[in-house]
Amino acid sequence: MFADIIIDVTSGKLDRIFQYRIPEALQEKVKIGSRVQIPFGKGNHEISGYVVDITDKTDYEPTKIKDIAGILEKDIALEGKMVALAAWMKEHYGGTFVAALKTVMPIKKRENNKEEKSASLAVSREEAVAKLEHLLLYKNQKARVRALAALLDHERLSFKTLKDAYQVTPSVLKALADQGLVKIETKRVFRLPQMSGEEGSDEALTSEQQKALDIFLEDYRRGEQKSYLIHGITGSGKTRLYLEMIEEVVKEGSQAIMLIPEIALTYQTVRRFYSRFGERLAIINSRLSLGERFDQMERVKNGEVDVMIGPRSALFTPFEKLGLIVIDEEHESSYKSEQMPRYHAREVARQIAETEGAALVLGSATPSLEAYHACETGKYTLLKLPNRATKGLLPEVRIVDMKAELKEGNRSILSEDLQEQIRERLARKEQTMLFINRRGYAGFVSCRECGFVYKCPHCDVSLAAHKNNRLVCHYCGYETQNQSLCPECGSKYIGGFKAGTQQIEELLKKEYPEARVLRMDRDTTREKGAFEKILKSFGEGEADILIGTQMIVKGHDYPNVTLVGILAADMSLYGNDYRSSERTFQLLTQAAGRAGRGEKKGEVIIQTYTPEHFSIQLAANHDYEEFYQREYAFREMMGYPPAEHLLAILLSSPEEELLERGAKYLKDFTKLLNKENLYGIIGPATPYVAKIKDVYRRVIYIKSEEYQALIHAKDKIEAYTSINRGYNKIYIQFDFDPAQG
Ligand code: ADP
Ligand code: ZN
Ligand code: ZN
């Protein structure tokens, strides 16, 4: 048996993997993640490394392979666990081992450690006063006098304060310390992100919450760490339930990881966690500096943390005794990494939970098809919260057909109904949220008169508009010409949909000059803290209307919002990929969930050109179950995930011709691999973004019922392209069950 060993994990300098033989005596003991001692280099001096893979074959001359000298720790240490996880990720998602390792252990070196020096008196107050009086006799001792006087007034002062407020330099303090008058202390300062708590309700759990908690705890205490999906409508008290579950797990001496989509989007959640766990909570997010991230992980390693909250990378928190992983809003696309290794947090969490013996809890008002399907097959236990925790009612949802509006001569972005409702809210001093759905928008072409949309005859996804009036399918490459008149009804109102948050803001200002309007989009949230500021100001009633993109959909509780308007509800339907219906259902349900969170009943208006679409109809009826059934039937018929598995092989290169050829050969190779007909092969096609920064892109899809067949194909393709010179200038990425088309 042979072991692949990586040498210096933390320096990140040695990217190479070396092979050693596992001697007979160690064969039982050496595992993936084990830390071993090996002879290295010419002098054969012994160094340590981690085992990343174990195989029974080698590419080298067997007699030249050295033996592992010994095993360092019997149990796999924390770092070894991370190495083992990286090995799993490489195996499941492809790419290099180093890329996987960097994902699971992103922080390498201690980055300019911040230390704070402070001074205090080393003698009694009397002695200090006497010394001060003595020093007053000398003209050139003024700085020392200032220092002693300051320290008599304040027990302890930082070097910084002494310098800024008292003009006392460190050298003066050093001199006083040498005289034995002053004590200097150095403390490592952990860079903690600013946090403040927010009291959540501590009212008794609802009977539904209690029932779910009991099921979870009964399994947990019995030592059965299972996976659960909490399907709870918006405002059903899921967050409250996570808090209780985590608190119990912590009480039993274990730690928990809480994933939330993107910290900024749900800062209310973070505050609730902070008020519950205080200093025992650590937080990471994409805005933290490397140093701040490092500090959070240090606190974890020092055992100072019970709960880590953060986006998908928080999964890689090295807890000693992990008891629970929670993934809030598990359907969110930000849980999928769009860089190699392109992992999904849900899958990696399951792997970690299994190896660590931890429980996994997913929660959503609109579960992903994957998660709900996993409940149907018994992989997850389904826990339901079908009612709002506050006894509030779900809002009433109305669908407005924008085609009819056009027929009646209203060419505004806002329907008559919505305009009137906004006016009413302004009069009643209630708030409105206007949500423009732009996610997944990729230039589909539709008819505003009859609702016709160009679709691929082979793949049942909408075609995307490219240059020169070409309309292209991103799966199979099918192409057609865009006509200037609608092929269905002959109308000239056919084209791409154009409306942004800015245009809506201008329109509102014209229509309702008295209204105070806030806008939240990429432009207005560029500055640090801008996001929170807008939400806070809206929450405090400083504006009547908040306009935003999908950013405003998430996790905010505004009791005074009684109207939600959703513009261009269809936009995400034409995202040109197989998940568009699902994404639309999710966005509409989540957006609608913002209305009527308080005591007043909410109303929701959905504006669309395709009012009959099942995603829109079922979101308006709050009917997830029916949506799931219909959507799953579609996936099954077309062979899309989760009914089958899909592997996207993304090829990119600055040389288009080379890329074209490489993609074609790769497809031929994949066909050869497929002797047993285990999968279907589609493409090569040109993705919507056909070129990024002068790098061209192509994609080939492989579809199979067996995930393992796809992993096998991936391995073979990696081997083929790594030895074949033609692929030197082509970058290849693998994307399993891609989130975006
Ligand atoms: P979700 O995460 O499902 O959207 P939250 O946990 O945020 O739900 O709860 C929604 C609202 O209901 C919050 O204002 C919360 O304080 C309140 N809430 C949650 N649980 C209860 C409860 N048991 N009793 C009363 N109010 C509750
Ligand atoms: Zn038409
Ligand atoms: Zn197609």
Automatic annotation (TrEMBL):
Catalysed reactions, semicolon-separated: ATP + H2O = ADP + phosphate + H(+); Couples ATP hydrolysis with the unwinding of duplex DNA by translocating in the 3'-5' direction
Domain Helicase ATP-binding: 219-385
Ranges in coiled-coil conformation: none
Cofactor binding description: Binds 2 zinc ions per subunit.
Binding residues annotated for Zn(2+) 2, in chain numbering: C456, C459, C473, C476
Enzyme class name: isomerase
Keywords of this entry: ATP-binding, DNA replication, DNA-binding, Helicase, Hydrolase, Isomerase, Metal-binding, Nucleotide-binding, Primosome, Zinc
Source superkingdom: Bacteria
Domain Helicase C-terminal: 481-635
Xref: Pfam families: Helicase_C, PriA_3primeBD, PriA_C, ResIII, Zn_ribbon_PriA
Residue sites binding Zn(2+) 1 per the record: C447, C450, C486, C489
Function field: Initiates the restart of stalled replication forks, which reloads the replicative helicase on sites other than the origin of replication. Recognizes and binds to abandoned replication forks and remodels them to uncover a helicase loading site. Promotes assembly of the primosome at these replication forks.
NCBIfam families noted in UniProt: priA
Subunit relationships: Component of the replication restart primosome.
Protein name per UniProt: Replication restart protein PriA
